[in-house]
DNA sequence: ACTATGCTCGTACGCTGTACGATAGTCAAG
DNA sequence: CTTGACTATCGTACAGCGTACGAGCATAGT
């Protein structure tokens, strides 16, 4: 028994260790750089040893997604529903920005893991307790998820991380591709964005608060 | 000259033919089923012949995405901005539902193709002409894209297509996984959804109209 | 007739996921 | 102490992947 635990926490393998290392590897090298051989190498094991802990690479990917969900904060219970939703949405954006490969994986993975389910339950509970009728709560839940995942998807496909990088790329890469007579409005937008500075966190809050405010009148204020 | 055209439209290859066939293959077999050898087979050619038309599989994937963008309706110019945005959003959802692999590809592809750019220009133009200030137009554009792509992403990860399929799966697969004492709210939601019937098109319009209405006061009504 | 150019594709290399079977260590029953 | 079962590890092998390389061919220009 003690041996078991010691082995699991030391050099020995375990499903958890395999999955967590896979997440680290995907963070570092992207999902294309994640192969069973490389993962095994990072764990100091042979490639086929992994198959004692995961049935296939597909199952590994599912488990990785669930690890990501574990990292997302649940909506706190002690505040109003808007603050609670904002907290969990902001946390989700941060987590998905940390693990950009996760968002691309979701399209093909169809069954939610345990952490995902716990998360959904907590969000639904928060909305119901705030006074949303059952069906309206599912709409709101769906809409907020759409926003969070959609934002993460768009953010992941941006080739820059900071406002400065954006300004540089706009001048060097984007604008040269946009002849002003063919794309007058995009030129105008790009110029305005460079001047104003682009902050993804602000952009996220803008849309999120707009949606939260629009949902407010749809609950039956108890 | 005539020969050239004839060859291109008959058995001969061309970049367009390669990319379009790749889209068809991905629709049929999923993006994992799309390999250069299989694609070449579908075109009656050798695998390496494809590389005269695309520099790499990456470039092929980029071109496939742009074909998808070509299928999306541009916002019509002769109506109010909300109707125009609704038209293009509904079209985008339909197209992305037809090509579910596209949404998962967007995460890793960072530079927009020509059709994508034309689309963005048209949407920005519509918003600017409706009276949105420059920066507000970029916010609105971004928010609407987030909604469309986020919805498509969620829809692609649903393991059912119709309300009936949903009802069947809810009874057979989802509910057995959700012990009522651990997931009371999800049970309640699932039951309500089964009773009410689930229609993705309606769900899409719900969130879309909510966002459009919330954006309305942010434009300077000229 | 000769050369150049554009297109096609066979072969080969280093990768992938994983099926199969061999190996060794642990432990309970005889 | 021996035996057999069970768990964990991994070497080997196979089919399939993207694609570098270069050979073969048809056509166009000189």
Brief descriptors of the model:
homodimer; mainly alpha; DNA-binding
Draw up the topology in text.
The structure is a homodimer of 222-residue chains.
Chain A: H1 2-9, H2 15-29, H3 36-42, H4 57-71, H5 81-98, H6 100-106, H7 114-129, H8 134-156, H9 163-174, H10 184-196, H11 200-215
Helix pairs in contact in A: 2-4, 4-7, 5-8, 5-11, 6-8, 7-8, 8-11, 9-10
Chain A binds a DNA duplex (30 and 30 nucleotides) through residues 3, 12-13, 35-37, 40, 45-49, 51-52, 56-57.
Give the SSE string of chain A.
Answer: HHHHHHHHHHH
Determine the N-to-C terminus distance of chain A.
53 Å
Structural class based on helices, strands and sheet pairing of chain A: mainly alpha
What integer value in Å does the Rg of chain A equal?
Answer: 21 Å
Outline the low-pLDDT stretches of chain A. 1-9
Average pLDDT level of chain A: 92
**Per the principal axes of the C-alpha atoms, what is the gross shape of chain A?**
flat
Biggest sheet details of chain A:
none
Please outline what is shown here:
With 222 residues, chain A is mainly alpha-helical.
Written description of the protein model:
The structure is a homodimer of 222-residue chains. Chain A has 222 residues and is mostly helical. Chain A has helices at 2-9, 15-29, 36-42, 57-71, 81-98, 100-106, 114-129, 134-156, 163-174, 184-196, 200-215. The relative contact order of chain A is 0.09. The model of chain A is unreliable at 1-9 (pLDDT under 50). Chain A binds a DNA duplex (30 and 30 nucleotides) through residues 3, 12-13, 35-37, 40, 45-49, 51-52, 56-57.
């Amino acid at each position: 028994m003690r041996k078991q635990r010691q082995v699991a926490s030391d050099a020995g393998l375990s499903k958890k260790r395999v999955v967590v290392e896979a997440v680290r590897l995907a963070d570092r090298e992207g999902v294309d750089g994640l192969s069973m051989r490389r993962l095994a190498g990072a764990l100091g094991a042979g490639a086929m040893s992994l198959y004692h802990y995961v049935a296939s690479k597909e199952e590994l990917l599912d488990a990785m997604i669930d690890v990501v969900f574990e990292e997302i904060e649940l909506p706190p219970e002690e505040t109003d529903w808007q603050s609670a939703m904002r907290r969990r949405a902001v946390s989700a954006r941060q987590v998905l920005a940390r693990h950009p490969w996760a968002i691309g994986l979701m399209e093909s993975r169809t069954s939610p893991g345990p952490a995902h389910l716990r998360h959904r339950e907590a969000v639904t509970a928060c909305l119901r307790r705030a006074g949303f009728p059952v069906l309206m709560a599912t709409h709101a839940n769906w809409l907020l998820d759409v926003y969070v995942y959609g934002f993460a998807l768009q953010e992941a496909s941006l080739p820059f991380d900071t406002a400065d990088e954006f300004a540089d790329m706009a001048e060097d890469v984007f604008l040269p591709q946009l002849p002003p007579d063919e794309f007058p409005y995009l030129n105008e937008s790009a110029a305005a964005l460079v001047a104003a500075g682009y902050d993804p966190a602000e952009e996220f809050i803008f849309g999120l608060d707009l949606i939260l405010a629009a949902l407010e009148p749809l609950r039956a204020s108890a």
